[in-house]
Each structure stands twice: as structure tokens, then as C-alpha cells.
Design brief:
single chain, about 450 residues, mainly alpha, CD2-Gal4, 2 domains, 16 helices, 2 strands, globular, DNA-binding
């Protein structure tokens, strides 16, 4: 009696399809779907099964860097920080250096250290970058005689065309070690931005008097969203998030402004929405729009970069002793400094946070091609930053108790600075560059409190 086809299949089942090469290498479960498994489709990887005909092999449609959906990455609050570091592809991407010695040529944007040496976290350097000729913001801003460098027409950050290695579990262990030793302070301060803006009308990158004459509509919506976000709880979450999404959609649908004050406000607003989305623990709420708002933030930050003067603020281009009376000169100088210093800091923190988030969730950070850098230059001075009028500003300037940090070179700060010389914005970067414990030790050695 002959067996039925069903019986034959039960006795001699066809071989099961093995995991694809990418999942096998990463030791991950494979969905075994064709033409590409779920994991490879999500990460933009080439999916190939052993014995598969060449015609069925899929290639990545994401060129040049895989994009990971915000819903597919772990919330930042879920990141474990107890495991020991393990060498990985992260080692090749991070280039540490010491601020105690002269800095090397500008490193890639926002490199994060993987060990105990000091990294150029902001990795920013475009010398002589200044507003285009004829810009009204050139009148009161120093340029040091440096040539004007126009913003590149192409993308500011060029991505490598080669497929990047996959992130493995041990890489998250390495990330956790970096978070614990270097990034925790910066993360806490950035995460606290919505509450701080509501309570003090300022941020480490937004001067308290920046919007003294009126707040653009983009920041009005963001400020309202901050109040809603801070008040969000399990009961009102749905209504709160609906209102925040409405403000965000209104901002995204508006054309990008051309004037520096309005563009600065738009960039700061987008940064706040990005912070909402990145740190929201509910993956079905704000994190659902993270990719979209991050892209908008980067476009706005690049436009802001082209209008921002990163030249030194010293070298005799401003009067060494601004007049206390009459105040016309000092008032004009103070107003220009408030606008441009806020712009410099906003550009830097926008690119820094974008790279920081990518590293935290395990997405390979953007790489520069060696010619496009940002000149990381800001004024380190609590007295100047906290000056609420031209008189206080002129007094602080005449005392010359400030540092100009350029290209992440903090050598002068380490050697000559005192704890009272370090403002909150500078603390964010110094803790990342030096390490949190190293920075605490430096403060204590100079008679300050950690």
C-alpha cells in the first residue's frame, strides 16, 4: 500500500531554512522570511540565506547609512550600565585625545570616547565661519580677518557608503560604561531642559534675555509644549500628547525663516521637541515622530550654522573696556553677543545631542569626510552669560574673567580656570571630555564644590 503525500512529507520533511548570514553572525533570531528577514529589512542589511539562488538575494535600499526607526530602539531609560566594556566597532569610531596637550587636527563630529582618555566630543572645527556679506548680524560681530566660509551646498555630514558593522549586545555594554563615566551629567541636563525653560526662562544654550523683546511663534508653541509635557501623567497623557503633536505639526509645516533670530528660535524649538521624543518612555507617543523631528532639527541647525559667527570674541575686535556711560556702545555689544552666543551654543548642542542619541541607542554615528567641520567656539563665563543688561555685561567684560573655548581645546581652562569660571553649558562638555569623576576632582582641587 502506497503512502500518501502527507505521510511522505511527515516522514521526510523538507529541510528547514537556516538563519540568514547577518542574523547568524550577530547571533540573533531570524524570521526566515523572503526576500528579506524582518531584522535585515529593519536595519537595511543585505539578507542572504545559505544555498539561496543569487537572484533572491536582497540588497539594502538605505544608502549610505542604515536608518533605524525610533519605535525599534530601546528607550534611553532602559539602558543598563553595569556591564564591563568590550572592544567592538565603537573602538574604530572613537579617537580620544587629551586636553592637557595641544589638540590634533579636527576630529570627526561628536566623537564619543570609549575609554578613559579625553575625547573631542564636540569634534567641531570650521575656521573663519561667519555670516555672508551684507548680513545685518555682521555689524557688531568680530571676524578676525578670516575669510568667510559659505555653508556647503551638500549635506553637512557626509556618510560613508560602505555598510557599517552591526551592533551587538556587547556594544551596548560598552555604551553603558561610557554613559556611566562621561555622559550621565550631559544626559540629565539635556533631559531637564523643558522644566528648566519653564522655571527660569533660559537654557544652557539659550540666554535668559534672548526673547526679551518678544518670542517668535515657533518658541511660543515649544514653550507651551514644555508646560504640557512637564504636566503629563497617566490620566492626561492622551490629551497632552495630542496638543504637543498639534504644535509640532504647525512648526514642521511652516517655512524655514531666513532671519537669524527667527531661525534660532525654530532650531531651539525643534531641539526641545527632539528631547521630548528621545526621552519619552512610551514608544507609541512622542518617539513615534522622533525620526521626522530629528531630520527637521538637523536641517534647521545646518541653516543656522551658515548664519552663525564662530570667530573668536577677543583680539581687540570688541572694546576692552565697554563704556558704562553713555551705554549706546555697550548696549549694542551686549545685544549682539546675546544673540550670537545663543546661536553658537544652539548649533553645538543640536549636533552634539543628535550624535549622542545615535550612540546611546546603538545606531552608528555619522562620520565626516575630513573637510566639513564646525568650529566649536563658545564663551565660558557665568558672569557674561548671567548679565541681564548692558551695565552688568560691560562690568563683566571689563574684568575679562572669561575663556574662549575653541576646537574643544580646554587647556587654558584646566590650567588657569576656577570653578566659578565654568557655566552650565561648559559643564556639559567638560564632563564628557574629561570624565565625570575627573571633572569633580578638578573642581575640588581648585576649591570648588562638585
Amino acid at each position: 500500500m502506497s503512502l500518501s503525500l502527507s505521510a511522505l512529507e511527515r516522514r521526510h520533511p523538507p529541510p528547514r531554512r537556516k538563519s540568514c548570514a547577518a542574523c547568524t553572525k550577530a547571533k540573533r533570531r531570524c524570521s526566515n522570511t523572503l526576500p528579506s528577514c524582518a531584522r535585515c529589512s529593519q536595519r537595511g542589511l543585505v539578507c542572504h540565506y545559505a544555498g539561496q539562488p543569487p537572484g533572491l538575494t536582497t540588497t539594502s535600499i538605505l544608502d549610505p547609512l542604515p536608518t533605524v526607526s525610533a519605535q525599534s530602539v530601546m528607550p534611553l531609560s532602559d539602558l543598563e550600565i553595569d556591564a564591563a566594556p568590550t572592544p567592538s566597532w565603537l573602538d574604530a569610531a572613537w579617537h580620544p585625545w587629551s586636553p592637557f596637550s595641544p589638540p590634533p587636527p579636527p576630529p570627526p563630529l561628536a566623537c564619543i570616547a570609549a575609554d578613559d582618555s579625553v575625547p573631542p566630543l564636540i569634534g567641531l572645527s570650521v575656521d573663519g565661519l561667519a555670516p555672508a556679506d551684507g548680513s545685518p548680524h555682521n555689524r557688531l560681530l568680530p571676524d578676525e580677518g578670516a575669510p568667510v566660509v559659505e555653508a556647503p551646498a551638500a549635506s553637512l555630514i557626509r556618510l560613508p557608503s560602505a555598510q557599517l558593522p552591526e551592533l551587538e549586545t556587547r556594544d551596548f555594554d560598552r555604551i553603558a560604561a561610557v554613559v556611566r563615566s562621561r555622559l550621565a551629567y550631559a544626559i540629565d541636563k539635556i533631559k531637564d531642559a523643558p522644566r528648566l525653560l519653564l522655571a527660569e526662562n533660559q537654557l544652557p544654550w539659550s540666554h535668559p534675555m534672548l526673547y526679551r523683546d518678544g518670542m517668535p511663534a515657533s518658541m511660543q508653541g515649544a514653550l507651551s509644549s514644555c508646560a504640557l509635557y512637564v504636566a503629563k501623567n497617566a490620566v492626561n497623557a492622551a490629551v497632552v500628547l495630542s496638543c504637543i503633536h498639534a504644535h509640532l505639526r504647525q512648526l514642521l509645516s511652516a517655512p524655514e525663516p531666513a532671519a537669524l533670530p527667527d531661525l534660532l528660535a525654530r532650531t531651539q524649538a525643534l531641539l526641545l521637541y527632539t528631547i521630548f521624543a528621545a526621552f519619552d518612555p512610551d514608544p507609541t507617543s512622542m518617539r513615534a515622530v522622533l525620526d521626522e523631528v530629528q531630520d527637521a532639527l538637523m536641517r534647521s541647525a545646518k541653516s543656522l550654522l551658515s548664519l552663525t559667527n564662530f570667530s573668536s570674541l577677543a583680539d581687540g575686535l570688541y572694546p576692552e573696556a565697554p563704556s558704562l556711560y553713555p551705554l549706546a556702545e555697550s548696549r549694542a555689544m551686549w545685544e549682539a553677543w546675546v544673540l550670537m552666543e545663543s546661536s553658537r551654543r544652539t548649533v553645538m548642542i543640536s549636533f552634539f545631542f543628535s550624535q549622542l542619541y545615535r550612540v546611546l541607542v546603538g545606531i552608528p554615528a555619522h562620520a565626516c569626510d575630513g573637510m566639513l567641520y564646525i568650529n566649536a567656539s563658545w564663551t565660558m563665563s557665568p558672569a557674561l552669560w548671567q548679565a541681564l543688561g548692558p551695565v552688568d555685561f560691560a562690568v563683566a567684560w571689563r574684568r575679562q574673567k572669561y575663556f574662549i573655548v575653541k576646537k574643544a581645546d580646554v587647556t587654558a581652562v584646566i590650567k588657569e580656570g576656577r570653578p566659578r569660571d565654568v557655566d552650565e553649558f561648559s559643564r556639559i562638555f567638560l564632563t564628557c571630555m574629561m570624565g565625570i569623576e575627573e571633572f569633580k576632582g578638578w573642581l575640588l582641587s581648585r576649591g570648588g564644590d562638585p
